[in-house]
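task queued by scheduler; priority normal; single chain, no ligands, no partner chains; default sampling; output format set to structure tokens
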Amino acid sequence: MNPALTGIWEMIRAESGGEHSLELLALRVELELTSARYTVRFGGQVADRGTLAVASASSLTITGTEGPNLGRTIPCIYQVAGDRLRICYGMDGTAPEKFASPAGSTNYLATYRRRSAEEFAIA
């Protein structure tokens, strides 16, 4: 596992099929990554959970074990830059080749900001 991925990430931008997903930002989406698991929370409530396998320095695969992605395997590419994380999810099971979610695509592109220890303690 890339240690730079571990932590709690707050979604700050989301795009699907070429459209911005502003409603997701209103739900206060958080992504928690550990060495082998992921958890997605909407407004503090667990909405999706599963396993996480890092394939390389820029790709990973998630497999849903609870929630709407139960039984789905989703290949992703990712990029960490400071306190920002971008993940492009191949929702159709095909690994994305670039960080994009053009119209007609099933790619889901999300940008997250790492939550600091102070923010986590306050929440």
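post-processing summary
- The chain has two helices and nine strands.
- The beta strands are 7-16, 19-20, 29-33, 37-42, 45-54, 59-66, 73-81, 84-90, 107-114.
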